[in-house]
Amino acid sequence: MQYSLLLPVLSLLIGADAAETVLGAYIFHRHGDRTPKSLPPANLTTLGYDEVYTSGQYYRSRYLTGSSKIRGINKDIVKLSQLSVTSPVDNVLQSSAVGFLQGLYPPVGETMSTQSLANGSDVQAPMNGYQLIPVNIVSSGTGSEDNGWLQDASGCQNAKLSSNAYFSSAEYNNLLSSTKDLYKSLVPVVNGTFDASDVTFKNAYVVYDLINVAEIHNSSIPSSSVLTPSTLSQIRTLADAHEFGLAYNASDDMRAMPGMQLAGEILKYMNSTITSGTAGSSANKFGIQFGAYASFLSFFGLAGLPKANVDFTGVPDYASSMVFELFTTKDVPTGTFPTTSDLQVRFLFHNGTASNSSEPTAYPLFGGSETAIPWTTFSNSLSKFAVKTTEDWCTKCGNTTGTCAAYAPANNNPSAPNGNGNRNAGGSHMSAAVGGVIGAFVTLAVVLGGLAAFMLLAGFRLVSKQTLAGGRKTPGSEVVEAKA
């Protein structure tokens, strides 16, 4: 994804408006450089570690120590109530979050990390005052970087069905057919990992991903003469088209579920920033979430960002970040918080590692032209597609098992009070499930009654196997315990 600044007039000089007061921020961040998806488990590389650490340092200079400092946030020693850091369960993403935090809140040194105890002794924190910051878990995106297909990590049935529809689209089939020769030429480069039959547009991203990692890290690549600048550009463009087609569709937004979930998480956190500020609390100022490129792509589509820049249809580079700033241009006396009518939101994006020499750029959201929009406009626009609750997610996804069982439609949930779907609200009728149990017992009673009558008339009696065996247990008389 190469973000040419097609809208230079929209570029924002970071912290240029001295009248602004930043009240909170939410960052969604991609992981750093990693090993290829096609050779799991993927791991964060040393280069990737450096990328996210550098990004953490930049956002420290922006929001903790610079002119755009978030009002009231602790600069040096982290106050955990002010900060929320989340990631899916994933080696690459969780490690990236930790590396970023080391740049955001670095070790505080011997003086600030020493604690005096009641007995008069002093204890110094390990590693020169290294700060321990928990990375909390979000439900979406688990194992993202070990999955070759972005929807494998979503868990959403209807999102998978929607994405699968891309494989029957005219766009997909045209590219599958027109690129056969290109991908055939790549077989000697990747045949140590992929079968020749798998090197097609169907696997555009994982093929590109393997080659891209090799280009970064390998001193030699098989048949490298094939990988001309033109070819590398083509396979990158094709990978972008493939993944955007799977992540977003204007006429079927179900495949953008990762973006819907992200929108819900952004709204929830930024609302908590406003609520806590209004209540006079200093909590919930800075939210940071690490996630996979699928969430970027689907959010880009949902938020109308391709209208601002066509490059928003491409996979963002490693360590990319998008930021939502909550700010006001009104005077904010100490101890007060602006009314919602005085709050604004700005969206910024940086492709690749942000730094003081390469800062994020502001872009307009939702097809508009302004880079700063009122909070109410932002909140209402995001709410149109945001998934805010587990019940909403389960309903949209059509999932009915596990956590979603509690929200399954009544006719799909036999254990629900209205499970048969035929309950008469005006009367006291038993359900089919209860009626079935009673009916079974009635039938059993009739059978046992008939058997007893037959035995009485015929002179039969019940004798245990132990008695027949002369008091010894026979194998058939033993009870077998089934263990779950």
Automatic annotation (TrEMBL):
Q: Where are the transmembrane segments?
A: 438-463
Q: What is the lineage of its organism?
A: Eukaryota, Fungi, Dikarya, Ascomycota, Pezizomycotina
The family assignment reads: Belongs to the histidine acid phosphatase family.
Q: Which residues form the signal peptide?
A: 1-18
Identify a single GO molecular function assigned to this protein: phosphatase activity
Q: Which InterPro entries is this protein grouped with? A: His_Pase_clade-2 (IPR000560), His_PPase_superfam (IPR029033), Histidine_acid_phosphatase (IPR050645)
Q: Please, which domain of life does this record's source organism belong to?
A: Eukaryota
Annotated keywords: Membrane, Signal, Transmembrane, Transmembrane helix
Organism of this sequence: Clohesyomyces aquaticus
Which Pfam families does the record cross-reference, listed alphabetically?
His_Phos_2
Name it. Answer: Histidine phosphatase superfamily
